[in-house]
Amino acid sequence: MHQRSNRVDLHIHSTASDGVFTPSEIVHQALGRELAVIALTDHDTLGGVAEAQRAAASTNLEVITGVEVNAEGDWGDLHFLGYYVDPENGLLRERLQAMRDARVGRARKMVERLREMGMGLEWEEVRTLASGDSVGRPHVARALLNRGHVATMQEAFDRFIGNDGPAYVPRLRLTPSEVIEAIIGAGGVPVLAHPGHYWAALERLPKFVEYGLRGVEVYYPDHSPEEIKVLLGLCQKYDLLFTGGSDFHGPAVREGAPLGSVYVPMECVERLREAAGFRTRIAGQ
Ligand code: AMP
Ligand code: ZN
Ligand code: FE
Ligand code: FE
């Protein structure tokens, strides 16, 4: 029965980073599924948002400006979502640009390692597959697949470029406080993404709140009903808002779930808007 109430999806990747569909295609699919609100949250780039907002302009679909940024904390890799950020903000632009530049250097290094391991592969092939401005491991995996070095993208991760793989090279990562600061500085609302991926990191939640964290992504494909309950409890304890989304990347991509397939209450959007200062802005006009 939840199916009918799925009108919101606040975690979606497009071709601006490592998703399969263009921002316009995502908007058309969201309209087809009768979604009311989506957020585009590409890795380290806001490059797809304007196109999605143009595609949704004469429809009832709201496209929230969003971004997903990685951070390296003392608990390892953490992802933060930033909603309603100002894409023109200097500090945010600078930090995202640094992340994207580092992604290029790092992907080139992975190609070098794969070549040393005897695989024919050119950097240009990976670059071409990354049609947006944020290059990621899925592009390397697809290049290996195109060359016939692996039979599936998953095999590329399992054998070569997964976190423990022989050709894996880590990315530049900002600290959690740097990421939160940049999102807040750009007028956005910082949210901890998919805590189910790093459950232990929740011990640091009070620290993140101190830095300015405003929410936690509670509704997510692999969060169980029990986990959702625990996370909602934490949100209440620390006065945080809760969000949710599918982390849709496209069909046949292991991460995430189909567009609009995760139950996300509309209340999430209302509280996000409030946190972004929407009420005051409108009242002050
Ligand atoms: P990157 O941001 O370049 O490190 O790439 C991360 C992306 O690669 C994730 O968003 C996933 O889509 C994908 N990914 C990472 N690890 C795996 C894995 N073990 N199996 C399949 N996909 C993975
Ligand atoms: Zn991704
Ligand atoms: Fe993520
Ligand atoms: Fe994501």
What does this protein look like?
This protein has 285 residues and is of the alpha/beta class. The chain has twelve helices and seven strands. It has helices spanning 2-5, 23-32, 49-55, 90-116, 123-129, 137-146, 153-161, 176-185, 205-211, 225-237, 266-275, 278-283; strands at 8-12, 37-40, 62-73, 76-83, 189-192, 215-219, 241-244. Strands 1-2-3-4-5-6-7 form a seven-stranded mixed β-sheet. Helix 9 links the parallel strand 5 (189-192) and strand 6 (215-219). It is globular, with a radius of gyration of 19 Å. The mean pLDDT is 93. The site of zinc ion has 5 residues, from loops.
Topology summary:
Blueprint: H1 2-5, E1 8-12, H2 23-32, E2 37-40, H3 49-55, E3 62-73, E4 76-83, H4 90-116, H5 123-129, H6 137-146, H7 153-161, H8 176-185, E5 189-192, H9 205-211, E6 215-219, H10 225-237, E7 241-244, H11 266-275, H12 278-283
Helix pairs in contact: 2-3, 5-6, 6-7
Bound molecules: adenosine monophosphate (AMP), zinc ion and fe (iii) ion (2 copies).
The tally of strands reads 7
The helix tally amounts to 12
Biggest beta-sheet profile: 7 strands, mixed
Hetero compounds: adenosine monophosphate, zinc ion, fe (iii) ion
Going across the biggest sheet, name each strand in turn.
1-2-3-4-5-6-7
Rough shape? globular
Unreliable residue stretches: none
- Our Rg estimate from Cα atoms comes to 19 Å
Structural class label: alpha/beta
Terminal-residue CA separation: 40 Å
**Secondary-structure element series:** HEHEHEEHHHHHEHEHEHH
Which band does the percent of strand residues land in? 5-15%
Query: Level of helix content?
Result: 40-55%
| Mean pLDDT level | 93
